[in-house]
Structure to design on (555 residues):
């Protein structure tokens, strides 16, 4: 997603396209122009496909979160996820896009804002690489980035599920997605101070996943665990109500990730996009295997919910370096992410941090791992700078989210009362149930 | 007349039904129930934590027969529902005061 990356990868395809007879004749100036115009269309079309792949990830988050929680909170979870993508798109159009990609920074390379709203004059419609060939339109640029924006809040939604007040969560979402996500995003993808230091995050292990993960941790710490989860020193698991729904969610997320990572090439460069597809797939697969093996050893039984978390762990892990690590490295990164997620889910539970869907383990822990892994597995990037990025994002995002949640807690309150929590947020917050014609669990 | 209530393992229901049909039992009512006995539930694991399933799912079968059939029915249930492992369930035999068929108004053993 770093725009400086575009120029060096689009060159080879353009020359390849120009060399094709029938599309263009080599050496002819007019034919060069035709080839470049064709490339512009191909690039832009791929970026729009990637955009709708990222869009479907929001359905993946919704079904995964619904599946791993109780049926009495399903309407609430689906409602939050429906609201989040909508808030994300609108705030990104109003503020986010120009805060994340300000062009010129006003405070060092730390903060910049190029005005409210979106729009462009016809002559600036085409966004071109350094070689002058169009990679996408202004509108494609905006909508692709906008689809990402809400993800940070969706990650929080899963961790705070089954006990947070709807209106307080929505206010948090507006502030975090409109201001914090794009502001810290500008430090890297907007060519800010971390970009200048050489920090690398291809598609957002840190910029998207850890940014959401830190806020999830802050929210969970201020909310406390769900009633009945920890009694004395023992953990009483609260079972997810629909494993098929959770599985559908993970497969939708995996599918969407091809757009998330593949689109982050920011052009349709055949070699770059297909390579990113390979590293992304292998890391996800290795994540499943890692989580499967470790959960089988530790629990004596292979746990489906852990294997599903393992796929996401591998995907989050490879996101920072999908284009710069080798094929073998992508497998190792995914495998370690799969092991990490199992250890983290169990460890976080032991210290009584209640995360119903494993969002902190998947997005925060594996986001940090993926970002550091770039420094380990890519010779072009420094581990120290990657660590600096992790710390900078960690401190800023955790403190910001903590302040927002703390202010909400002190004013509107963030947690539903115990009676509503026991009866379920579907009836309490929405006055409706998810499975009206089905018998749901009563004991 | 006797009413026989058997709490059995759910997957044994088909075997029990076939045994009853072979005996000439005319009808039965079943309910999905949950409970525990000396077995005290069993342990399962979810996301790394063990938990006790206090109430184990069972099927309750209710059969009404004439008094002289009761022993044969009990015997057939014991045979068809037994696995030999813990949690096979229990059979209760109750004396029955009256039976009525709603549609025809028949009573007693004609209504069974």
């Amino acid at each position: 997603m770093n725009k400086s990356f575009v120029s060096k990868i689009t060159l080879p395809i353009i020359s390849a396209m120009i060399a094709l007879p029938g599309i263009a004749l080599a050496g002819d100036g007019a034919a060069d122009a035709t080839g470049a115009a064709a490339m512009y269309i191909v690039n832009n079309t791929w970026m729009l496909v990637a955009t709708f792949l990222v869009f479907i990830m929001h359905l993946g988050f919704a079904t995964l979160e619904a599946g791993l929680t109780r049926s009495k909170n399903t309407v609430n979870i689906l409602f939050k996820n429906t609201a989040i993508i909508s808030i994300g798109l609108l705030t990104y159009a109003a503020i986010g896009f120009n805060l994340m990609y300000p062009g010129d920074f006003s405070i060092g390379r730390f903060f910049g804002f190029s005005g409210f709203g979106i729009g462009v004059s016809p002559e600036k419609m085409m966004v071109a690489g350094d070689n002058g060939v169009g990679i996408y339109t202004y509108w494609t640029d905006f909508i692709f980035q906008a689809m990402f924006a809400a993800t940070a809040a969706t990650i929080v939604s899963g961790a705070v599920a089954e006990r947070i007040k709807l209106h307080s969560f929505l206010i948090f979402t507006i502030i975090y997605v409109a201001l914090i996500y794009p502001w810290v995003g500008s430090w890297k993808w907007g060519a800010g101070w971390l970009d200048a230091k050489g920090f690398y995050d291809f598609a957002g292990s840190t910029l998207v996943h850890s940014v959401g993960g830190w806020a999830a941790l802050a929210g969970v710490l201020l909310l406390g665990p769900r009633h009945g989860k920890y009694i004395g020193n023992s953990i009483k698991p609260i079972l997810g109500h629909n494993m098929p729904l959770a599985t559908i969610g993970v497969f939708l997320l995996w599918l969407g990730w091809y757009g998330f990572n593949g689109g982050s090439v920011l052009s349709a460069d055949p070699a770059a996009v297909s390579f990113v597809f390979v590293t992304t797939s292998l890391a996800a697969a290795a994540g499943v295997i890692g989580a499967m093996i470790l959960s089988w050893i530790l629990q004596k039984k292979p746990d489906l919910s852990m294997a599903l978390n393992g796929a996401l762990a591998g995907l989050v892990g490879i996101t920072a370096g999908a284009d710069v690590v080798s094929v073998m490295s992508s497998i190792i990164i995914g495998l370690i992410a799969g092991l990490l997620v199992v250890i983290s889910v169990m460890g976080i539970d032991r210290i009584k941090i209640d995360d119903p869907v494993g969002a902190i383990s998947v997005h925060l822990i594996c986001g940090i791992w993926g970002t550091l892994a770039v420094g380990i597995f890519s010779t072009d990037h420094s581990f120290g700078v990657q660590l600096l990025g992790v710390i900078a994002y960690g401190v800023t995002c955790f403190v910001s989210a903590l302040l927002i949640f703390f202010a909400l807690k002190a004013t509107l309150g963030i947690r539903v009362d115990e009676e509503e929590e026991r009866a379920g947020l579907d009836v309490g917050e929405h006055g409706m149930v998810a499975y009206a014609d089905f018998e749901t669990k009563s004991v | 007349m006797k009413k026989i209530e058997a709490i059995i393992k759910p997957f044994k229901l088909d075997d029990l039904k076939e045994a009853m049909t072979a005996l000439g039992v005319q009808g039965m009512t079943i309910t999905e129930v949950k409970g525990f006995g000396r077995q005290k539930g069993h342990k399962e694991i979810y996301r790394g934590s063990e938990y006790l399933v206090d109430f184990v799912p069972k099927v309750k079968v209710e059969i009404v027969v004439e008094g002289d059939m009761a022993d044969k029915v009990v015997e057939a249930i014991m045979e068809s529902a037994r696995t030999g492992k813990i949690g096979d369930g229990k059979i209760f035999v109750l004396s029955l005061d009256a039976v009525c068929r709603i549609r025809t108004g028949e009573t007693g053993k004609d209504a069974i």
